[in-house]
Every structure is written in structure tokens, then in C-alpha cells.
């Protein structure tokens, strides 16, 4: 049985809140932080804890984009009974988010033993951080940044939704990094790519948190650390979302690319020196 203290939960909540929506891999950073605090990264309860506190970050998205989400959900419900409403972009977008979530759910359930076991290694995190950096840099250079959020299509949503699988299988690749990079390759501008990444993350991450809750509670993580970690994650994530949207409106993703490479190389060094246990 692995216990996570309230103090450790605060630290992990901050890490989750800062990194969940930045394209730097929240899972990777959580595993690094857990390793530095001698928390076993592949323990079932720890994996569950990490998934649950992600719900705090998702709650921050729900609050930050409440008006947008309310508009989209309302359009979806109206479209269920009104044929004319089905031609509106918001109605179609709601269905696209649902459809784009299906692949990651199926892969997540099928590959759970690998995700919770061998793929949870910090060596995988380090390699994925570096490889994902290359993918992000190429996507930012290749993309023409000419399409806005209103120009998104079903094809865009499915490609971006399926790209979440990379982060699911390879912690360190980054869900945000994978989705934003894919959106950039599809020629969406950086703000549209970032917002699409947020919306597609809501059902996937919420579902993962609910699914893992039983493991986190049943395997030794108390309710207090879970509650504290989730609350801290919410507060920090809200600030992180506001900052990121302002940042990408005026800057490329190069700063994140450089940061990821530095962290990946440093992590390999720590693992190679025996400072961290993979």
C-alpha cells in the first residue's frame, strides 16, 4: 500500500496544474516529481492518484471556457430535436468531440496493463520528451497557421483526437503537445490549435479520472490527499490556461521545445547516475 501525504499532494497538484495544458507533458513531470519524492511511479494507487487530480485541471477548463461550453452543449441538445440546428458548427463540433474521444478510450482500456506497467518507466518519459519535442518543432515549422477555430472540421477533430493516444502510450510525449502539433500540421493557427486541444481533453481526462478513482482510494491514497491535490490542480491550472492562450497568440512553441529537450536530457542523466529509479 502506497500512501501519499497531504504535503506531497500539494506539490503534485501544483505540478499537474502547471503542466496539464502546457505542451510539456503533465504525466512526465508528475512521474519525475514522484520519483524525486521516492514515490513509486508504477504503483497502481499512484497512477490512480495522478489521473484523479487531472480532474481538477479539467474543472479549470470547464470554468474558464464555461460560456463556450454552454453554447456548444446547448446547440447539441437543440440539434437533437431540431433539424435546422444540426447545420450549425457548434452542434457538429459537439459530435466531433464525442467521436474523437472514442479511439483513446478503446486504446486506454486495451493497453492499460502496459500503460500502468512497462510504459510508466522514467526512461520512456525521458525519451518521449525528446522525441515529442522534435515532432512539435517540425509541426510548428510546417504549419501555415491560416485556419481559425471556426474552420475546424470532423477530419481535424478525429486526427487531433487520435493523436492523444501517443501521450497515453508514451508518458512524456504530452497530450497537449501531441494534439497541438497535429492541429498545427493541419494548418490551424496556434490559438485555434490550443483551444481545440483543451476541448478534446475534457471528456478523455474526466473519464480517466473517474475510472481511476477506485484504484486511488482502494490502494492506499486517502481522501484528503486526493481532495487537496485536485483543488490545488484546479487553481494552478486556471492560471496556466489564461497565460498559455495569451502566450501562443504572440509566440511560437520554440520555448517549450527547448525546455522539453533540456528536461529529457537531464532526466536521462539522473537515471543514468542512479539518482532516480526508473
Automatic annotation (TrEMBL):
It catalyses: di-trans,octa-cis-undecaprenyl diphosphate + H2O = di-trans,octa-cis-undecaprenyl phosphate + phosphate + H(+). Keywords: Antibiotic resistance, Cell membrane, Cell shape, Cell wall biogenesis/degradation, Hydrolase, Membrane, Peptidoglycan synthesis, Transmembrane, Transmembrane helix. PANTHER family: UNDECAPRENYL-DIPHOSPHATASE (PTHR30622). One of its GO terms (molecular function) is undecaprenyl-diphosphatase activity. It comes from the Bacteria. InterPro entries: UppP (IPR003824). Its main location: membrane. It is a multi-pass membrane protein. The keyword Ribosomal protein does not apply. One of its GO terms (cellular component) is plasma membrane. Catalyzes the dephosphorylation of undecaprenyl diphosphate (UPP). Confers resistance to bacitracin. It is found in: Cell membrane. Bacitracin is thought to be involved in the inhibition of peptidoglycan synthesis by sequestering undecaprenyl diphosphate, thereby reducing the pool of lipid carrier available. Belongs to the UppP family. This is Undecaprenyl-diphosphatase. The chain crosses the membrane at residues 46-66, 93-111, 117-137, 193-211, 223-245, 257-276. GO terms for biological process: cell wall organization; peptidoglycan biosynthetic process; regulation of cell shape; response to antibiotic. Its EC number is 3.6.1.27.
